[in-house]
Amino acid sequence: MERMDRTKPDQVGETGAAAIEQHARPDTAGNRTVATRGVPASAVRAMTTFSPADEEKRRGVRRMKITATGLLLFVALVYVLAKWASSAGAGPWAGYVAAAAEAGMVGALADWFAVTALFRHPLGIPIPHTAIIPTKKDQLGVSLGEFVGENFLSEDVVRQRLRAVGIGSRLGAWLAEPQNADRVTAELATALRGALTVLRDSDVQAVVGEAITRRANVQEIAPGIGKMLEKVVADGGHKRVVDLVVSRAHDWLVLHGDSVMDAVQGGAPGWTPRFVDRKVGERVYKELLRFCAEMRDMPSHPARGALDRFLTDFASDLQSDTETRAKVERLKGEVLGRGEVQDLIASAWTAVRSMIVSAAEDERSELRLRVRASLLSLGARMATEPKIQGKVDSWVEGAAVHVVTTYRSEITLLITDTVAGWDAEHTTKKIEAHIGRDLQFIRINGTVVGSLAGLLIYTISRMLGA
Q: Phi and psi of 246, rounded to 5°?
């Protein structure tokens, strides 16, 4: 009753692959057919080859087919013998047996037709509404995709499922365990090292340099500098700088008096006598030394007041004078454009990266210890504080809902296109290998139930005198 499939696994795989390739040929526009558009190669290979487990299931299906067919032949033989016995006058029992066997044959044949119609045309006859799986494969894929989208990828289902799981409290309890915090810390350190290793220094330096330059060019710095300088002068913060500069200048003059006098003498006219030049140089040097000493030792020195007024006026010009602000902006552009500044940015990134990599590799570094402590603290709070649990659950639900609502059509399309890319004949055989054994029990049950039903009907008919 059933045609036994003796095709070798490798032949089946080649046939299925060839059929898939045929379905995937370009159309007149040079595009691949819809049947295999976007179908992963692994999915195609999975449906064009039989694994050892598949082969074992196919052998189980064959055994069950033989059992179900053997039972049909057995009731047919019983029916023939019962009819022969009834015609030979064996007694009323022969009629009961014949009725039961006849109904059993009808049930077995009906269920054989139903099971066979799922996978192929019974006896090769193209009866309508048979060979359902191979002929309706694409429609089944569409229906399966729609079913998954409506019942598994809906917003309400996702929210209810995630809310029932309680991700916030579970994640918190898991993070609160020291060994788990250590594991997460180690994984984060590995990821950080990998990211810094993959990044090229030149790329990062270019991005950082461009970002700093763009931000500096967009924002005018003169008013900010003016406000800061105004506050510094008002608070007297510049006086320490003045003290330091004046003190260092006095010390320098003490150590380099000869150099100062030589410089003054060298600038004198050639027609003046040398002793006059020397006297002038000594006089200039002593005045400079006296000026620095007085300015150092006298907080109320007139030069200090003049400097205060100059800084105050300059702070005001930085905030309000258009020409001064323009000069500062031009100076800013020139400074940022210098190669030394870009080299400084590059060296800063190299130093920062080296510091981070070293800290990530050292298990006892301050970075890893702080990350571990933060994870333990976060886990403890998530495990005990409902407010934080609610926030985490809300974030997870929102992210999951965004994914399923945004990409639901792509997910269902993947199912549809994958099923459409399968070879119909090979897919039918593979599905039959997985569920065919259970379907053969339907044939066996049909034979038994049919026999019992036939016996019951025949018995009632005899009781009613029919």
A: -65, -40
Find where tokens 């569920």 sit: 435
CB 393 within 8 A of CB 162: yes
What's the CA gap between 444 and 74, in Å, rounded?
12
- Element of type H or E holding 389: helix 386-421
Contacts of 370 (CB under 8 A, 6+ apart): none
Task: Report the distance separating Cα 408 and Cα 146, nearest Å.
Answer: 10
88, 148, 284, 295, 406 from 305: Cα distances, Å: 144, 83, 23, 10, 69
226 close to 316: Cβ distance less than 8 angstroms: yes
In the prediction, which pLDDT does 36 show? 46
164 three-state secondary structure: helix
Predicted confidence at residue 103, as pLDDT, reads 93
- Look at residue 108 in the predicted model and tell me its pLDDT: 92
User: Burial of 402 by CB count in 10 Å (0-12 exposed, 13-18 middle, 19+ buried)?
Assistant: exposed
Number of other residues whose CB lies within 10 A of the CB of residue 442: 15
Round to whole Å and give the CA distance between 373 and 202: 34
> Which residues does residue 32 pair with via DSSP β-bridges, in sequence order?
26
Q: How many CA atoms lie within 13 A of 176 on its CB side?
A: 13
Question: Which residue, chain included where needed, has tokens 């050639």?
Answer: 270
Closest CA to 152 of 402, 414, 415, 404: 404
**Model pLDDT, residue 415:** 79
Q: Answer yes or no: are the C-beta atoms of 392 and 167 closer than 8 Å.
A: yes
Q: How far apart are CA 396 and CA 382, in angstroms?
A: 14
Rounded distance between C-alpha atoms, residue 131 and residue 247, angstroms: 103
Distance CA 145, CA 412 (A): 5
Asked whether the beta carbons of 419 and 92 are under 8 A apart, the reply is no
Q: Please, which residues bridge with residue 26 across strands?
A: 32
Residue 195's pLDDT is: 83
Q: Is the dihedral angle over the CA atoms 123, 126, 127, 133 positive or is it negative? A: positive
Please name the amino acid found at residue 171: L
Residue 207 and residue 346 in contact, taking contact as beta carbons nearer than 8 Å: no
Indicate the domain borders of the chain: 9-135+423-463, 202-337
Helix, coil or strand: residue 194 = helix
DSSP state of 92: T
Residue spans of the chain under pLDDT 50: 1-38
